What we know:
By secondary structure, the protein is mainly alpha-helical. The protein has a single domain, classed as Tetracycline Repressor, domain 2 (Orthogonal Bundle). It contains 9 helices and no strands. The chain is elongated and about 70 Å long. The protein starts with a helix and ends in a 6-residue tail after the last helix.
Amino acid sequence: MNARSEATAKTRQRLLDAALTLFSQRGYAATGIREILEVAGVTQPTLYHHFADKASLLQALIEQHYGESQNLLANVLAVEPTVAGKLIAFVTSSFEYCCADPRGPRLMFQTYYGPTVPEIDGVLDKLTDRRYRLVVDVMQLGICSGELSKSNPEFLALTLCSMVDQPLNIFSRKSRPKRYLTSELAHAIVELFLKGAGNPA
Length: 201
């Protein structure tokens, strides 16, 4: 990569980084182009050289952060031989990704639960469905192997995702999410999912 290409890539990344910080803190709708320009330290023509508009900037961030987390998840799930191991890996990798840069999960939750952005609806649905389908596949594998009781794999996947996403949503907003999103919590969530909270007779 020559010096000009490297400078262009760095400018684009500065814009993405500024937008990630602002969108994750304030939400997409409450963030203006002028604020992004000020934080990134670039001019408006520079922004429009890299991105068509604010929505395309958001789309690039979503594709980058959802894509990274899901590629990591797919790789981790592939190497674990047991369903229990895959479930722990799913929760642990989700926690680790959040702790590495909490702005990513904050962006995801701000986007998914905030005001609808019609320009990115299809992109968001496709990426969230990919994560869900990875978990559905694990549940189906567990049912077929006898590691999980016979049930609807989609319901099981929805249950586990809900158990994981709520702590992610809450603790990604803390100043030090690593204090809360621990390996112990990951194992406790999986144990609760596999065994339930009831006291067997």
